[in-house]
Amino acid sequence: MKTVIHMLGYASAVGGVSPACGQGPLVLQQSKELEQLLGHLSKAGIDFKWEGLILPQPFSPETLAAEVRRLCQILAVTTAEFTRKKEFFIVTGGDHTSAMGTWSGVRAALSGSLGLIWVDAHMDSHTPETSESGRFHGMPLAALLGYGDSRFTQILAPEPKINPSQVCLIGVRSYEAGEAQLLKKLGVRIYFMDEVKQRGLAVIFNEALERVNRGTAGYGLSLDLDGLDPREAPGVDVPEPDGLGLKELCEALKSLSGDPRLQGMEVVEFNPNKDIQQRTERAIVELIQAIGSHYYA
């Protein structure tokens, strides 16, 4: 059983919609509810460490991609170190470009391939050629699969970080043709919201776990808060109606708690300026509590 949990803030929104998203990790560091949860974990014998914030530097439109790469490189080196030590981590964000750093680092430290569960309202699988907005937070999954800007696909290593057969998306309900065509071509398993509603999130998660554990040395969880229904998590930049329920998602995460194959988790796209009555902040605390439930049950 892991006895250390590291918290790391990816305090950047330079690849996303609103600069305010970069303030999400700072708000979480100051959250009274999260502080109370960490106190419960401490009493259970868990060494919980805030590892600080990864902060952007000044950039221009011409250097934006290089700045995203720099941030992801720092994050990758850090998550690789946690993985080598077999210590669990939680990355808070910040925009979803974090995933290019988080999982590049984990893959570099594993002795075999990496599985990945990706919870999101969107596919995040654009390349510069297919993206209408050009925002990099819509490209991280494609980059991890080896497609897109080489500055993102080659973080720590030149090869793809995940195999299409060892990743699955859950909760998708908004996407564009270009990214959908790429994932279809690669054979990536996508659980659209219609299927989640029909079959139930618990069943979907069990199938996803089987997929990401098949032939891998471990797996990770990338959780974009817009995967949740905006009535429960309004503090996101790109809300999409009719999303996952918080209670059901927390129950699914409890099934992962304490799994030695789970290397880490990221919870991203929190924009505190758009939050209502701290609903999203509280949702994040509940999600972290769920993933840590094994330690203090």
How does this structure look, described?
By secondary structure, the protein is an alpha/beta fold. The chain has a single domain, classed as Ureohydrolase domain (Arginase, Chain A), CATH 3.40.800.10. The chain is built from twelve helices and eight strands. The chain has an eight-stranded parallel sheet with strand order 2-1-3-8-7-4-5-6, sandwiched between helices. Strand 5, helix 7 and strand 6 form a beta-alpha-beta unit. Helix 3 packs parallel to helix 4 and helix 10 packs parallel to helix 11.
Order of helices and strands: EHHEHEHEHHEHEHHEHEHH
Nearest-integer average pLDDT:
95
**What is the fourth-level CATH superfamily?**
Ureohydrolase domain
Number of helices: 12
How widely separated are the two ends? 13 Å
**Strand line-up of the largest beta sheet:** 2-1-3-8-7-4-5-6
CATH topology: Arginase, Chain A
Strand percentage lies at 15-25%
Give the C-alpha Rg.
Answer: 17 Å
- Tell me what the CATH architecture is: 3-Layer(aba) Sandwich
Largest sheet data: 8 strands, parallel
- Helix and strand composition category: alpha/beta
- Assign the CATH class: Alpha Beta
Task: Let me know the number of strands.
Answer: 8
**What is the percent of helical residues?**
25-40%
In total, the number of domains comes to 1
Low-confidence spans: pLDDT under 50, at least 5 residues? none
